[in-house]
From TrEMBL, chain A:
Keywords: Amino-acid transport, Cell membrane, Membrane, Transmembrane, Transmembrane helix, Transport. SUPFAM superfamilies: MetI-like (SSF161098). One of its GO terms (cellular component) is ATP-binding cassette (ABC) transporter complex. It comes from Stackebrandtia endophytica. One of its GO terms (molecular function) is transmembrane transporter activity. It is a multi-pass membrane protein. Belongs to the binding-protein-dependent transport system permease family. InterPro entries: AA_ABC_transptr_permease_3TM (IPR010065), ArtM/GltK/GlnP/TcyL/YhdX-like (IPR043429), MetI-like (IPR000515), MetI-like_sf (IPR035906). The chain crosses the membrane at residues 20-45, 66-91, 192-210. This is Polar amino acid transport system permease protein. Residues 20-210 form the ABC transmembrane type-1 domain. It is found in: Cell membrane.
UniProtKB/TrEMBL annotation, chain B:
This is Amino acid ABC transporter membrane protein 1 (PAAT family). It comes from Stackebrandtia endophytica. The keyword Electron transport does not apply. Pfam families: BPD_transp_1. PROSITE patterns: ABC_TM1.
Amino acid sequence: MGSWNWERASELLPLMLEGLRILLFVTAVASVIALGLGLVVAIVNRSAPRAVTMPLFAVMEFIRNTPVLVQAVFVWTLMLMISGTSASAMWTGALVLGVHYASYTAEAYRAGIDGIPKGQWEAITALSLPKPRAWFAVLLPQALRKSTPALGNYVIALFKEVPILSAIGVAEMVTQVKGYAGIHYGGSLEGFTIAGLIFLVISYPVALLMRKLEKRLAN
Amino acid sequence: MDFINNVAEALPSYLVPLSVTVSATLFGAMFALIVAFSLGLMAGSKITVVRGVARTIIEFFRGTSLVVQLFWFVVVLPQVFEVRFDAVLVVAILALGMNYGAYAAEVVRGSIAGVATGQWEACVALNLSYWQKMRLVIIPQAWPEMIPPLSTLAILLLKGSSLVSLVGLADLTFHAQVLGRRPDQEMLFHLGMILVIYFVLSYLIAAGMRFLERRAKRGIGQEPVATRRPRAKDAVAVG
């Protein structure tokens, strides 16, 4: 019971790799939503009237300060009510994680935008650049440089949060281990250990890369 | 009217789950702070071995997923040592504390390294021992700098505490799902309600930490500058 079983480990490995594939897919979809939506929120916060930004701030604050697990179960329940059994846990999970992390990336973008020297804004006014041009040609290229390391860290964090979606049945690694252990009355030692190692092997090098980038962009 | 009556009857049953969430957060945070200071001081050490041990533990807990760590602590460890833990809450608190403690260790290390060089030199000039230096000079000045990022981590810990429901602990998240499945109850209502409870708890944490920050700054004679709610950019961890 208490010791490592190689046979079980080798049975688990293909399941874990299938789980990893789903995990990476969810990470990719959620990252695209988080990076895109966060940018939209940050730009809207800078350029829209208060009647828009105040409610938006409240919503983002609420999302940021409540557990993503509860958010996922909430939206999943809602999806099942609306579309019945045809709802996809994987897409729902990716959407919830993406929107949750958008509330963080919006802040990272905001910090980047705040770091743009005042003279740049004045130059935009002086040249009377149209808004889209001002954002895409002047402001964002400068802001993104400052935000990149923080954004990268959020993508790593998001990657590590995907197992939360086992609560709504997304078949990522933790769900696979639980499924296997439920049938075979064993394998959680091997499964959760392999899962931990896979996380470490993927997220640690990426984190090191982000730290290097942070140092380089700081100069 | 039936629904309202049913809900009203169910509400008092939230008291115990709320206490599980609050104690997981509170004790988790206390343990995380101990871990953070131990690992943070070790990571700033001049001795390579001490620094290496701290770095390994920090990177291990930061590099793997909290969900996996929780399952490892609660499900795998009892198997490996062939014991049975009756107090799953305690084990979950240890897992939460180690995970967020590892993130907070970086905050502690960074703030200590950020104390002005003159202060370190003064300690050498006064021939203070390591503990005197840390206790009397360095940590009191680093502490106010640590509080805003630690506040963000405390809120992440509160949110992370909901994961104990995945290993079967009856916290708010667990209770809402059990209650919501009853035929006379509405799942979305219960989930929505605990979302609001989590939100209120996180604001209480933020307010408490702002109070601590003001006091800590006054303690070392700094102006209590207009403190803001910690921004997400301070956050690095999961939740």
